[in-house]
Amino acid sequence: MRRSGLHFFLDTEFPKVLLIEHSVNSRQITGRKIMRKNQKAEVRKPEILEHYYQVLINEGFEGASIGKIAKRMNIHPSLIIHYFKTKENMTLELVKALIDRYEAPEYLQFDHIQDPLERFKALMDTLFSLEWSRTVDPGVHFGFYYLSFRNPEVKKRFEEMIKRLRDHLIRELERFRRADVVKVDNALRAADMIVTLIEGLEFH
Q1: What is the pLDDT of residues 6-65, one digit of tens each?
Q2: Confidence of residue 145 (pLDDT cuts 50, 70, 90)
Q3: 50 and 136 assigned to the same domain
Q4: Rounded to an integer, what is the distance from CA 22 to the centroid of its chain?
Q5: CA dist., res. 73 & res. 43, Å (int)
Q6: Residue 92: pLDDT band by 50, 70, 90 thresholds?
Q7: Are the C-beta atoms of 176 and 182 separated by less than 8 Å?
Q8: Of 45, 66, 85, which residue constitutes the final position of a domain?
Q9: In angstroms, rounded to a whole number, what is the distance separating the alpha carbons of residues 13 and 81?
Q10: pLDDT grade, residue 103 (50/70/90)?
Q11: Shared-domain flag, residues 59 and 130
């Protein structure tokens, strides 16, 4: 009976333990592979988007293609398709990346300036500066505006960006009003006018 019990243990229980260990190890290996893949994508995707942006500057929307981006990067087009699937997906990712540039903290955060008048001057100088208007290449910027009339998702993202800028301006204008730096009866309307001037200034 003892021999039979030992035989039973070796034939059934021990292989089960090995099977469980193998299963755990397989999950760990798979997890590490996924992690490495995600880390690689975090590096590769922004790189591809930057090259897409440069191709747009040189070729415009009509001339830009996955093939030209791949050629610029000296990679196979299938690698770009692997990360983005379609050109439309890549375009939406680029819109988000470019909007992030406009919303970078170093542009519109002036908490280090305590004097309200100096803070107001710094904000206006930034909004109407060449540096601000060239945060994104004008041809690409207004190319996306054009695209927004045809692509609802692009339009939505631009509207959200402008709303966030307008809301930020409303808060700042209310701050300046309380400090007697400006006289504003309607902060919303004033913010809308500033945004309109910023966008119209590019054409002017």
Answers
A1: 443 444 555 555 555 555 565 555 555 445 555 576 778 999 999 999 999 999 988 999
A2: confident
A3: no
A4: 40
A5: 14
A6: very high
A7: yes
A8: 85
A9: 47
A10: confident
A11: no
Sequential DSSP letters for 171-187:
HHHHHHHHTTS---S-H
Mean model confidence pLDDT for the chain = 83
Outline where DSSP puts E strands in 100-204: none
Counted residue by residue, the chain has a size of: 204
C-alpha to C-alpha distances, 133 to 20, 90, 158, nearest whole angstrom: 60, 24, 15
- The amino acid present at 84, given as its one-letter code, is F
Token pair of 184, please?
Answer: 């504003």
Distance separating alpha carbons of residues 99 and 154, to the nearest angstrom: 11
Domain boundary among 85, 106, 138: 85
Question: For residue 45, what pLDDT is reported?
Answer: 93
Tell me, what DSSP letter sits at residue 79?
Answer: H
- Range of the structural domain that residue 59 is part of: 2-85
78/176 Cα distance (integer angstroms)? 53
Q: How many domains does the chain have?
A: 2
- CA–CA separation, 56 and 64 (whole Å): 6
Burial of 55 (0-12, 13-18, 19+ CB in 10 A): buried
DSSP category for residue 12: I
